[in-house]
Amino acid sequence: QVQLVESGGGLVQPGGSLRLSCTGSGLTFSGYWIHWYRQASGKEREWVARISSGGGSTNYADSVKDRFTISRDNAKFTVYLQMNSLKPEDTAVYYCNSAPGNYWGQGTQVTVSS
User: Fold this and answer.
1) What are the beta bridge partners of residue 104?
2) Are residues 93 and 107 in contact, defined by beta-carbon separation less than 8 angstroms?
3) Which of 12, 30, 84, 105 could disulfide-link 74, Cβ–Cβ 3.0 to 4.6 Å?
4) Which are the contacts of 31, defined by CB distance < 8 A and separation ≥ 6?
5) Which of 45, 77, 78, 79 is nearest to 61 (CA)?
């Protein structure tokens, strides 16, 4: 049974930082690209970032470029999303997703508010 589990969300003040984790099980984790998406209340799900299976290639949405960094540790079956200089508009539920397979985690809430 394939599982992706996100963690690390929480409440942070504007300008603060959080690191999200996405840990996989039941799949050959190192063979999958991993994407991060987010969905704010009342809005459509938005693609945030992706990382190649080996970690050598990364891409970001314009809205998070230069503030977020995606990385992975295949030995720990985990992908990270380091989020710096957070803004209120980053508030959303963050999900990780695998490609291929299109497996999704349950999401972790990030709230940026003073």
Assistant:
1) 97
2) yes
3) 30
4) 53
5) 45
